[in-house]
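Friendly challenge for the regulars: who can give me the structure tokens for this chain first? No prize, just bragging rights.
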Amino acid sequence: MKALKKYFAVLLPAVVCGCSGFEHKPDPQYAATYPPDRSEAPAVPSGGIYQASYQPGATLYLFEDVKPRHIGDMLTVILVEETSASKAAKTATDKSSSVDISNPTLLGSPLQFNTPNALPLQSHTGNGLGTSIEAQRDFSGGGNASQSNSLSGRVTVTVAQVLANGNLVIRGEKWLKLNQGEEYVQISGMVRPADIRSDNTILSTQVADARIAYTGKGAINDSNVMGWLARFFASALFPF
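First reply, four minutes later:
Bragging rights claimed.
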């Protein structure tokens, strides 16, 4: 009884620690980027109507849309990912062959062997050297595979870097903690300012070098995962 209590005393903290490990932690690769700290004092207004640089970091564009241009600016990515792939293969082979060897003749007469069990080969006319061989081989195989995926939604990200050609490196994640688990979307890539719409959005199909991940944790996600023993029997390690 004492040994059983010690066993549970060691097992319980391990289970608690294991459950706490399922909590999602922000990935540094998709962490939000904040604008640099501007410690300089704000400019004193001159009294004119046009005060484009009155506030630090603020820029007034009179003839174009307001778009992200600096590190830390925000941009909304519209997820419109949809892929579909299919593959089919079929193979069939058929081969047949036959050989017929007639009984040889010696001085115009066929060879005969009347001694019982002297020669197992049987000719069509009696005991002799004539024989026939036939072989046939068939093979057929086929396979097909299909896969389709769809992902839609919106994720607001931040500008992590401004490249020399003006393109923006973006990254960010959206984390939803629901009743029975956690769901989060992560995205990173490069965008052109010209592709950004007037409402400060861009399609995910216009993101270069895109890295999009949609995963989850919790009871619902765990119920859709095959157990380790079942994965072993379904893997190539299982020889049967």
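Helices lie at 2-20, 219-223, 228-234. Residues 88-143 form one domain. Your move, everyone else.
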